[in-house]
């Protein structure tokens, strides 16, 4: 049998330290003081570290293969509405379940058995199956089930295609919107991933729903102090026509709303929401007439920035979709529009070196469309090329999200 990774005494010491952490987590659970996503994430990390202490390479391999088999089993059961047809409470026989979804009893049973084996479904007796708390979310359309489908349908084919892609293009970092891994995997290398997705609106809406499950990784408020903008706007000699905050690629305007709600004296009507014209049309259609909102401007951030000299420009969660060269183009348009006292805020995940697990994963997911996560140095390098100089880095209290402030160099 292959040896454990650590010598026994070192593994025992680590396990004892982790056991103390788990005992602490158990008392937090009992006291109900474990409610925050941060304490849950810490607990998951502790458990993972425990597995890492004891796993042998064969166990690692087994876990990896379990991961993709489990993902496939869930995807198929979702496709055939099996989770939806399991009773919310109580059990159903495999025979009845298969009849309800119109599949072979033997096929449905084998897929369910895999999930029973991993603890996601529960079996009673020899032929009765039931939901657990871990399977119930897959019984409806929600960000979690959409993310599973997106992971399987949109990303996995690109990963499977990677060996062939690199045979063709060599071992070079994929960059640029054309000839991306995703487009090549779909047999359309001359299209961008966005063009491919937008041709099928159902894929876009699934992606949007799935992305909302990741929103707690990117806090909207509490990372950067915007109060200086309200102070500047209230100054006696302030130019009342000057845009205060322009959110570039701001989608439905949720960032601007959160900032203004959190910052007394910062009026939403003095802010500008920018996105692609087709997105702005949809957002305008959704806007309530009674509510004062930002000015909405359809634009393309690869072209000249139409609002000049705003106090602040924000570009949040956009640059990671693009290569360095493309980002320099986007940032140069912003830099050219900025006044000497304007500030640019880049809101993005910032890679640590080495990166955390979730960020390292998202970085490779982004590689499939020619995008990437960046370290602070990575952001500063592209910003410098666009005539900008870093003036502050504001990290979220939890996770890898940061707001980096730049001024004109
Ligand atoms: C991942 S979303 C980020 C949305 C928002 N900033 C946030 O932080 O949640 C990227 C946004 O960039 C917009 N976008 C993509 N390409 C663009 C372009 N060339 N010009 C303007 N907006 C663009 C998309 O429509 C989308 O709303």
TrEMBL record:
Lineage: superkingdom: Eukaryota
A single GO molecular function term of this UniProt record: O-methyltransferase activity
Methyltransferase found in the keyword field: yes
Single GO BP term: methylation
Domain (O-methyltransferase C-terminal): residue spans on this chain: 243-388
Active site per UniProt: 320
Regions crossing the membrane: none
Keyword terms of this UniProt record: Methyltransferase, S-adenosyl-L-methionine, Transferase
SUPFAM superfamilies in UniProt: S-adenosyl-L-methionine-dependent methyltransferases, Winged helix' DNA-binding domain
InterPro entries hit by this protein: COMT-like, COMT_C, COMT_dimerisation, SAM-dependent_MTases_sf, WH-like_DNA-bd_sf, WH_DNA-bd_sf
Gene3D superfamilies in UniProt: Vaccinia Virus protein VP39, Winged helix-like DNA-binding domain superfamily/Winged helix DNA-binding domain
O-methyltransferase dimerisation domain ranges (all copies): 64-138
Cited Pfam families: Dimerisation, Methyltransf_2
Keyword Heme set for record: no
Protein known as: S-adenosyl-L-methionine-dependent methyltransferase
